[in-house]
Amino acid sequence: MSKDKTMDEIISFAKSKGFVFQGSEIYGGMAGVYDYGPRGVELLNNIKSSWWRATVQLKPDYYGLDSAMFKDPRVWEASGHTGSFSDPMAECKDCNTRLRVDKALEKVDVEADEKMSEEEINKLFSEHKSKIKCTKCGGSNFSEVKAFNLLVQSNLGDFTGKGDNPVYLPGEACQGIYLNFKNIVDSMHPKIPFGVAQINKAFRNEISPRNFLFRTREFEQADTQYFVRPNENKDAYERIKHERWDWYVNDLGINPENLRWSQHGNLVFYAQDAWDIEYNYPTYGFDEVEGVHDRGDYDLTQHSKCSGVDLSYVDQESKEKFVPWVLETSAGLGRIFLAVLSDAYDIDMLDGKERRVLRLAKDLAPVRVAILPLLKNKPELVEKAKEVFNTLNKLMVCEYADTGTVGKRYRKQDEIGTPNCITIDFDTLEDNTVTLRDRDTGEQNRVRVEELASVLA
Length: 457
Ligand code: ATP
Prior knowledge:
By secondary structure, the chain is α+β, with helices and mostly antiparallel strands. Helices cover 32% and strands 26% of the residues. It folds into three domains: 7-85 and 153-245 and 255-334, BirA Bifunctional Protein, domain 2, CATH 3.30.930.10; 88-146, Single Sheet (Rubrerythrin, domain 2); 367-456, Anticodon-binding domain (Rossmann fold). Strand 19, helix 12 (379-392) and strand 20 (398-400) form a beta-alpha-beta unit. It is globular. Adenosine-5'-triphosphate (ATP) is lined by residues 172, 204, 206, 215-216, 219, 221, 288-291, 330-332, 334-335.
């Protein structure tokens, strides 16, 4: 990571190059909501494809799923979200700015246990609140702490407008997996252990959305639940932890020095173990990008109890019947996106000039290769360049770039992370070779047109 890389720089870069925009910006912007622009959606989709390939398609023991976002409201009762999916909130009495108390305490090196009662956290907060400053007015005149439920409600099917039995937007992606556990067992007949994976949206009424894509109110989660026999969790948990780490390093190309593991100190009562993978975000420092949780049989047992449907697994050979234990991985795609973008962003010197370059892994880049005719006013060059473009674009994402000098066009492609540029010049017309330029080194080689597809693959 270049030393002076800051998050402000990344945010303004992301906007100016079409990666990420503030949601509803022309109306003043909506807190905690972001839109992915033309470059961003390509990068995001490539991250998702990489995850799906590694997690589902390359693993014979994993099944994919795409569950509906709306769920029976009882799902959120069973999961405990209506009762305890909350964060402690206080309000500045002078300017009404809301504060997430546990995170504010963390900043002054005080840890608030998730299991604390409202009374206990109020006591802790009043002991330390003189050290905490309101983010807007700088004062320390705060209200009492209240638990604020993060679930977002909808009025789906509520034709009376009374809102008696609200349908919620998903607070997390994994519930859809538990709801379909029986469907998957009955339709796919998986042998235990097996996993189910899905990417789904999640919504949380975050008290103070902040840190760009890090804490938003709408986001996507890439989740897996791995179902194992009771007490056969330990080895599988270690293996899953390794696999998740390797995906960040090998598939996303993230520098391992910017990643670390962090174990949860306070476990929820049913959990056996919980670790987070943290990324060293510019300016913000290390923080959670993915959780890997060893959850016991809590989730399936809860849904069995609350739905009245038996969610046990029956081993077809031994006829043993049991409620599987669950190993969960849950990653926020916005946080992964921000880690990938931050890690790839670099300012270096090339040919004696400073340049901005996005060193994205080849499979993640929004554009895989740019095709440049040396001059756009020479029909024979344009015709050849279009021919190369039309051939390669069937195999990988290409961009046709004909504006400005070739040097400037290279720099523009470097900024969005395009791994290679191909220049069609007058020699191409003679010997059917092109210049193939490498983003990272700036190195240029002559390659025959008919070999381009295999060289780039
Ligand atoms: P945090 O402690 O940061 O609030 P969490 O422990 O509540 O996160 P989980 O409920 O375990 O998070 O969610 C799994 C993943 O979903 C997290 O690792 C993170 O990547 C992502 N995530 C959670 N909340 C948000 C959010 N508000 N904005 C963006 N991503 C989020």
